[in-house]
Specification:
Blueprint (H helix, E strand, L loop, with lengths): L6 E11 L4 E11 L27 E9 L4 E8 L13 E8 L2 E8 L3 E8 L5 E2 L4 E3 L5 E6 L3 H7 E4 L1 H5 L4
Antiparallel strand pairs: 1-2, 1-3, 3-4, 5-6, 6-10, 7-9, 7-11, 8-10
Length: about 170
């Protein structure tokens, strides 16, 4: 916590497989003083690999979400337990909805499986996104903002990719 205020909340630690199913989950209360650090969790992740030793072809990823005391997402991260080129990504199908909000568009994006390294682009238009390299788990909704673009242009030109598109390119 590098702020001048203390922080109260919850850390959600998960191990998910390539489809996005949760293999392990723990919710940990977090209470950190201002301008300090705290060790929250120490786990030997080998025990969650279905009794096998970890190897480059593992199909597991670690997700960490931090929520404040009101339940709002503060920060999230995801790390693969192998190199991306060896990870057995499934090819996701994305569903999305767009709503105009002034000069911006609010996007709600879902995926049918674990999607890592997701990024957005718009054909024949230029805009900025509130986040543009993220992960999505099945059953979760990622909310984003596209700045300075109208909904029709966004709907007609939105292009969604993930790292799995690169991994499946030669297969």
């Amino acid at each position: 916590n590098d702020t001048l205020n203390g922080f109260e909340g919850k850390l959600v630690f998960q191990i998910v497989n390539a489809h996005g199913a949760v293999v392990y989950r723990t919710d940990l209360p977090v209470s950190i003083s201002c301008t300090s650090a705290q060790w929250v969790l120490e786990k030997d992740l080998h025990e969650y690999a279905d009794g096998t030793k970890l190897h480059p072809e593992d199909h597991l990823a670690v997700t960490i979400n931090l929520y404040d005391s009101k339940g709002a997402l503060v920060s999230q991260g995801c790390e693969l337990m192998s190199r991306p080129k060896f990870f057995a990504f499934e090819k996701p199908s994305f569903s999305w909805n767009v709503v105009q909000d002034g000069n911006n568009c609010e996007i709600e994006l879902t995926a049918n499986c674990f999607a890592w390294g997701v990024w957005l682009d718009v054909k024949d238009a230029d805009c900025l996104f509130s986040d543009n390299h993220f992960f999505v788990l099945p059953g979760e909704t990622k909310r984003l903002t596209a700045y300075d673009i109208d909904c029709q242009t966004l709907r007609e030109g939105l292009f969604i990719q993930s790292i799995s598109n690169l991994n499946h390119a030669g297969r």
